[in-house]
Each structure stands twice: as structure tokens, then as C-alpha cells.
Amino acid sequence: MADKIRVAHADDTVTEVGQYLPNNYKVIGIALDGKGVIIAGHDHLGWGLHNYVIPRLGSGLIVCTEIEV
Fold it and tell me: How far apart are CA 56 and CA 2, in angstroms?
């Protein structure tokens, strides 16, 4: 079974968000409202959305919320 792709919205720029992401998550675009970016990836070996990405972005005062797809 393939890993579940997780998608989230982060409220900062491509450059700012990108520097906080592990290799298994990427910025894939700018939000339609122009306020933030969309990131996507898969959890791998502890580098997960809820246990790493969201807290890591939070350490830089960047709000990140998972988008259920």
C-alpha cells in the first residue's frame, strides 16, 4: 500500500516555509487566496506532518493546518 499523501496550508511565503520542510514534504503552490502556500508530502520514518512539520513551522511562528483531501 502506498503512503498517504498529506496536504496542508501554511501562512507564509514559499521561501520561508520551504526552509523548514524535511525532504519528504514540498511547497507545491500558492494558496488561491494568495495568503500562504500549499505543501504536500508523506510521513516517513518520524518525519510526519503532525509530529514534525506542523510543530517545526510553529517554531518559526508559521501557522500550518492540514487540508483533508
Answer: 25
pTM of the complete model? 0.89
The CA-atom distances, in angstroms, between 50 and each of 29, 33, 37, 57, 60 are 20, 24, 17, 11, 16
Q: Which residue has the cell 510553529?
A: 58
> For residue 13, is pLDDT > 80?
yes
Going from N- to C-terminal start, the domains of the chain cover 5-67
36-51: per-residue pLDDT in tens?
999 999 999 888 999 9
3-class SS of residue 5:
strand
- Residue 30 has which C-alpha cell? 500558492
Please give the class, per CATH, of domain 5-67. Answer: alpha beta
